[in-house]
Design a protein that fits this description.
Number of helices: 5
Radius of gyration: 16 Å
Distance between the termini: 12 Å
Strand content: 15-25%
Number of strands: 9
Order of helices and strands: HEEHEEHEEHEEHE
Length: 205
Amino acid sequence: MKLIITLLFVLAAATLSGCAAVAVGGAVAGGATVAMDRRQPDVMATDERLEWTAQNRIEEKFKDQVHVNAISFNRNVLLIGEALTETIKAESTKIAQGIDEVKTVTNEMSIGAPSSMTARASDSYITSQVKARMVGEYEKVNPEHVKVATEAGVVYLMGLVTKSEAEVATRVARTTSGVKRVVRVFEYIPDSKANPPKPPPKASQ
């Protein structure tokens, strides 16, 4: 069953951009499985809207001067990609902050020309590998609780997790081939609020 899940991760990643998160199974909203996500369904829908709105507003204003991916989790927005100047990067932060319901904005965009399609494909592959390897740590951290994105070989981790889950997810990402650095953008919850991970579904007979 793990092999099947791993293959699904890889196949899903092939259709995504360089920093898109990968999700497997169930109904999907904002890149996560509704049944297993720690966010409320309305928050998941809001995150999806915030991602679309932030990315489109920034791209509409700066056109080919940016390559940006907006990722939102629990209304906390992460911006990654490239901005041609520091001014564009700062203005991108302001645009995201001005969107209704955004709580925080973390801008990790680098300064420089937009990345190539080859680089983005490599980033997508790294994301799929991190998520696939996280399946092997299912008893310690549920992959559905961690949103993974990659830009220029740097892996970004988001989610509502305990400190111990964060450490496991970080270790998995750091030891994945091709990863240059890991940046954590987690929100932490106490162990008492973390439901024990459910076992992966059994294959039908």
